[in-house]
Design goal:
The protein is an alpha/beta fold. The protein has 6 helices and 9 strands. Bound molecules: 5-O-phosphono-beta-D-ribofuranosylamine.
């Protein structure tokens, strides 16, 4: 199968970036990372890029007068590297139409909650404080809103009675590392069909569970 070219956008540690690098190295993905772009100098993601010999570019947003100017520079770097799919992996900037129109339905993001619940920042803690029994993570196409685009895949993670917010965050992160490479591979295989808000996966495997309960049901 023909490989797709990824451009990965980061702002920080890059554990999701690492999960994509590792999945590619393990031969699980029909994709190569052409370029990693960080808007912040000196972050751990850039070390990961160096270690794996992947081209990395810092585009410091503070050097640009407007969000649109910053996005224009991003578009030019992404196009120069022949990127097919833009993967936001802990990238902490809101995109403008400049970037969205240059890559229509070709930008995806991962969010550490079950959208549309808990949009925005620090959502693992917000979900924990709210007392939800399940949280999780979502991979979605990016549109002009914040965390509002069509949903590709979600993973559900239980919250246990003796959890802390950090334990929940870690449990969610482990699922992020599974569903993000999977979502990219579905895209690479051309199996995502988008109609309005709905993303249909062609030829999915049968679902393992029909429902989940937390706490588990007893006599019912
Ligand atoms: C993840 O929780 C991701 O869902 C969110 O930012 C975090 C990035 O983590 N968008 P990392 O940089 O991939 O380790």
């Amino acid at each position: 199968m023909k490989k797709i070219n990824l451009g990965v956008l980061v702002s920080g540690g890059g554990t999701n970036l690492q999960s994509i690098i590792d999945s590619i190295a393990a031969g699980k993905m029909d994709a190569t990372i052409q370029v990693i772009i960080s808007n912040i100098p000196g972050v751990r993601s850039l070390e990961r890029a160096r270690k794996h010999d992947i081209p990395a570019v810092v585009i410091d947003h503070e050097r640009f007068a407007t969000r649109e100017d910053f996005d224009r520079e991003m578009v030019s770097v992404l196009k120069a590297h022949h990127v097919d799919l833009v993967v936001m992996a802990g990238f902490m900037r809101i995109l403008t139409p400049v970037l969205l129109k240059a890559f229509p339905l070709k930008i995806i993001n991962i969010h550490p909650a079950l959208l549309p619940s808990f949009q925005g920042l620090h959502v693992q803690e917000k979900a924990f404080d709210y007392g939800v029994k399940f949280s999780g993570c979502t991979v979605h196409f990016v549109d002009e809103g914040v965390d509002t685009g069509p949903i590709i895949i979600q993973a559900v993670v239980p919250v246990y009675g003796d959890d802390t917010a950090e334990m929940l965050q870690q449990r969610i992160l482990e699922e992020e590392h599974r569903i993000y490479p999977q979502a990219i591979q579905l895209y690479a295989e051309g199996r995502l069909e988008v109609t309005g808000r709905k993303v249909r996966v062609q030829n999915p495997r049968p679902m393992e569970a029909s429902s989940l309960h937390n706490p588990p049901l007893e006599k019912f």
